[in-house]
Amino acid sequence: MESIEEKARRCARASQSLVMDSTEEDELYVDDMIRMFLAGVEWANRWISIEEYLPNGCDMILAKEPDGRLDLITGWQLHERIKPYAVDNFYIEWQALTALKFIGRFGYDTNNSNYINKLKAPERWKAERFRDSEGNLVFKRLNEEQKMTQSAGGSGDRHEFFEAELHYNRVFNKHHHVGSVLKYNQDSKIRTYNLGSDLKNSVAVRHQGFSGRFTYNWKYRYFIDFNFGYTGSENFHKDNRFGFFPAISGAWNLAEEPFMKKLAGKWVNMLKIRYSYGKTGNDNLGKNVRFPYLYSIGDGGTFNFADISVGDKSWTGKYYSSIASPNVSWEVSTKQDLGIDFSFLSDRLSGAIDYFYERREGIYMERKSVPYEVGLESNPKANVGIVEAKGFDGHFAWKQKIGKVDFTLRGNMT
After folding, report:
1. This prediction's pTM
2. 3-class state of residue 115 by DSSP
3. How many whole angstroms separate alpha carbon 334 and alpha carbon 349?
4. Half-sphere exposure of residue 24: CA atoms within 13 angstroms, side-chain side
5. Would you give the distance in Å from CA 288 to the centre of its chain?
6. Pick from 60, 67, 66, 50: which is nearest to 16 by CA?
7. Sign of the C-alpha dihedral, residues 251, 254, 256, 257?
8. Contact at 8 Å (CB) between 58 and 51?
9. How far is CA 101 from the centre of its chain?
10. 80: which DSSP letter?
């Protein structure tokens, strides 16, 4: 039968390989700790059998303290997690004419997660590294015995979306390339678990929009694109629910010009100058911010009728815990970009350089200019923030083949 010393040594070695990086100093200290714990018979009798949870049937493991010392501990924690989910996506494509195509998509995703945590731990002691003046072991209690406890919880949500697209692409007279896309989309996402008492948690987050794109290029030399999006979010008041976000861009590929081909020959594969201007919208006002156009009323507000601070004339009542902001709408970002794309030497050297400018307006944040005399519990929030960003960025790549080996060198800057 395995002695307690043999079992302690085996478990210590097994546990050490799991919880710490083994060093020569640690190996010597393991032996030291085993001798100390074998001397503490009373504490050793409190060990709990948890053979199904530890390696090789051990009921003790090594833990490394923050100061680097090792400690033999017992106890166990069981964590059970179940995550069922289902994903269904449907796709249809119909080619009506050579240049006309219809695409439809529908998706349904549901995700649920449930967990149970069970924790049990014995009274835990630790033998100090050094003995007392008489050579006796010095023990320090780390914690009292913890009875079996458990906690449980979970989360869940359901996401649905629908998209319908109409594509048109055609080439006229071999040089005029025309393309367009019209798209309708809507989506919905709702929590299905752990909703709490807040009614807003049971209301789905929804979006609906219509967008389009029109493109044209002549001989792949001159390019022009126009995009737009008309998108609505249920998070805003009905008068400010939809936003219009257009964008336009143009480009000129000098490498396709006859004079450039004569001047540069074959070593210039692409040299494109481009510019874009556009707007984008953001309806994410922050974590758990829903329907800012609604006010909320709180209980427990007090006020003094007549003399101030007189107890018998102090009254409780209701107050505005948050003020309605019906004019809150989309945060709008206006972006501009001027760039150059290049490719030289049979595409061995390629890259791009851009100058960008972005101005974000209507950022949802707290007002700081509301007088105290208004009597609000907290300052209201509105689309009052502005942020600007500008700068340069770029990247390049060099491709080379040496014998049978291909290698690429890449770099970037901002």
Report:
1. 0.67
2. strand
3. 32
4. 0
5. 15
6. 60
7. positive
8. yes
9. 35
10. E
